[in-house]
Sequence to fold (288 residues):
Amino acid sequence: MNRPDVTPFFDHATNTWSYLVSDPDTGEAVIIDAVLDYEPKGARVSHNGLEALYSVVERRQLKLRWILETHVHADHMAGGHWLRDKSGAPLVIGARIAEVQKVFAPRFGMDDLPTDGRQFDVLVEDGATLPLGNLTIRVMHTPGHTPACLTYLIGDAAFVGDTLFMPDYGTARCDFPGGDAATLHASIQKILALPPEARIFVGHDYLPTGRADYACVTSVAAQKAGNIHVHDGVDARSFVAMRQARDATLAPPTLILPSLQVNIAAGELPPPDAQGRRFLRLPLSLAG
Fold:
């Protein structure tokens, strides 16, 4: 099995891993789940992380072929729109993005937002392939966290987004609209059916008790042996019961409101008004 070069980038503010993945033979590359910097207390947007990531593309003289999103993120603003403007590479997401847009656009009063996914350049279905030099990107639809979640398979590497975390942290929450724990369990089984030595690159990492360093890569064998939520022997019913009980205790992500309204628009910020000001919307939820 071919082995791509993988360079990870960690965003400490959101505990997010982004990846620069390249074909060592041709220098063609993809970026997966890039982060747009957003400081919530001052509502400040910057491109420091994106510029650092893209500088590696330029320094290594790579040819950026695709910009990939595993799903619509609820915990950070996506950087795909900025990267597309910078590089000209097309922006790719799962075809079921339209379902997510139809749910969230009305919640933010985004009545003018088309909800057919047209903000992205390429919408891919389960089983689709994209070329990457001498490698092939294979698309695996792995819903459960959201309806549109994808895993990208490139050589021996699987980029699973939020579906799985490191074995000592477990699995993704399923309590967002369209999420479903039974569906997530089925998706995880598809990932765990890959060869035992296949590398799994996670979308986030958090430090559970007993671990001091952030990590981004594990393997199918390690997940099957030791994932605290879904190791071998955990059946679907037990997983669903655990996941639903755990999700009931979780607060919404800190950046869920700014992130969703930007990310359903492919990472494009709201248009400026006549004075050049941009505004995010904050829908209120009234107790009782």
Remarks:
- The mean pLDDT is 96.
- The first helix runs from residue 48 to 59.
- The chain has one domain: 5-252.
